[in-house]
Amino acid sequence: MSGDLGTLVNELSPYAVTAIGAYGAAVLSKAQEEAADATVGWGQKMLQKIFGVKTAGDELPVSIARLVAATEDADLRAALRVEIRHVLAENATLAADLAEMLEHAHRECESKGQGVVTAFAFDNARQYNLGQGTMNISPDAPHDR
Question: What is the mean pLDDT of residues 54-67?
Answer without folding.
Answer: 88
